[in-house]
From TrEMBL:
GO molecular function annotations of the record: hydrolase activity
Annotated keywords: Hydrolase
The protein's name: AB hydrolase-1 domain-containing protein
PANTHER family the UniProt entry points to: EPOXIDE HYDROLASE
AB hydrolase-1 domain mapped to chain residues: 45-304
Gene source species: Anaeromicrobium sediminis
NCBIfam families referenced in this protein's UniProt entry, alphabetically: PRK00870.1
Length: 322
């Protein structure tokens, strides 16, 4: 049972730039998940899943464009992020817990045959939800994300190797992250930095210039270090729960609906690493689809190329008769 839960004071979200959306909340097992729900309730649904350390603010430009095209758009905040509740102990933020929370959210909504755009941890969590709820989606777009397919010896050695890599980073700062953006510095920063400068982190992983107001909006969910448990823990659990993640990946290979990949050309973690090809080669519904590499876009391509993403998604949904 979760011992302590914080809720970010609402005033932290007052007058956010380009984020006029009405808040919605759902109990997903003792914690409240916030979500944006815009558009006519009778329209076809597109889910937008974010990752770490962002929240649904990341989709502020895409939401109205998709709604204007006649879709209902649902964008949840992961537990520990955005306007959702924030368990304060790191042990509560396990990979399996996040999958369970999101699974509960999807099951309680009761929406089936929808579409989804998943990025970063939004994919690592959302894909596992889909594996066990295959009728939830009819269309899937994945961007700058991955799902572990480690097996045998790899499942034992990979977490150990990454733990060693993380421990070799000293005390990364924003400046050292800017000089060398890699897993060790990323994990080290989030685990050991006394103050997490989320707005500045987001700026490091975008190609466009974020305004002061936009960076403050990314800082808003975390007024003090007491709220940091979610973003602190995420880099540590990237290779946890590997057996179950592997099982879910095998289930996903049997999912035959259309899949589109939209990865970035300037993502310091995933660009040119073949993760998009992994989806293209393993998902039956990805074959023959108009996959592209989104240019002039870093890890958070929703900030860099929101209009292009919307255009590509809308065109593809129409082509596949969604």
């Amino acid at each position: 049972m979760i011992q302590k839960i914080l809720k970010t004071p609402e005033h932290r979200f007052s007058n956010l730039k380009d984020y006029p959306f009405k808040p919605n909340y759902m109990d997903v097992g003792g914690v409240n998940m916030h979500y944006v729900d815009e558009g006519d309730k009778n329209n076809k649904v597109i889910f937008l899943f974010h990752g770490q350390p962002s929240w649904s603010y990341l989709y502020r430009h895409m939401i109205p464009q998709l709604v204007n095209e006649g879709y209902r758009v649902i964008a949840p905040d992961l537990i520990g992020f955005g306007k959702s509740d924030k368990p304060t102990h790191s042990r509560d933020h396990s990979y399996s817990a996040h999958v369970k929370w999101m699974s509960t959210f999807i099951e309680k909504l009761g929406i089936k045959h929808a579409a989804a755009f998943m990025q970063d941890w939004g994919g690592m969590i959302g894909l596992r939800v889909l594996a066990n709820n295959p009728e939830w989606l009819d269309r899937l777009v994945v961007a700058n994300t991955a799902l572990a397919e480690s097996k045998g010896f790899e499942r034992w050695i990979t977490p150990t190797m990454l733990k060693v890599i993380r421990s070799t980073s000293l005390n990364p700062t924003i400046e050292s992250l800017e000089k060398k953006m890699n897993y060790a510095n990323w994990a080290g920063y989030f685990s050991r930095s006394k103050k997490l400068e989320i707005g500045k982190i987001m700026q490091l992983l975008t190609t466009k210039n974020l305004s002061k107001d936009e960076m403050e909006a990314y800082d808003a969910p975390f007024p003090t270090p007491d709220y940091y448990a979610g973003p602190r823990k995420m880099p540590e659990i990237v290779v946890s729960d590997l057996d179950k993640a592997y099982e879910d990946w095998q289930k996903l290979k049997q999912w035959t609906n259309p899949v589109l990949t939209l990865f970035s050309d300037k993502d310091p973690f995933l660009a040119d690493q073949g993760y998009d090809k992994l989806f293209q080669q393993n998902f039956p519904g990805a074959k023959g689809q108009p996959h592209i590499t989104v240019t002039d876009a870093s890890h958070f391509l929703q900030e860099d190329q929101s209009s292009e993403l919307v255009s590509r998604i809308l065109k593809w949904l129409n082509q596949t008769k969604f």
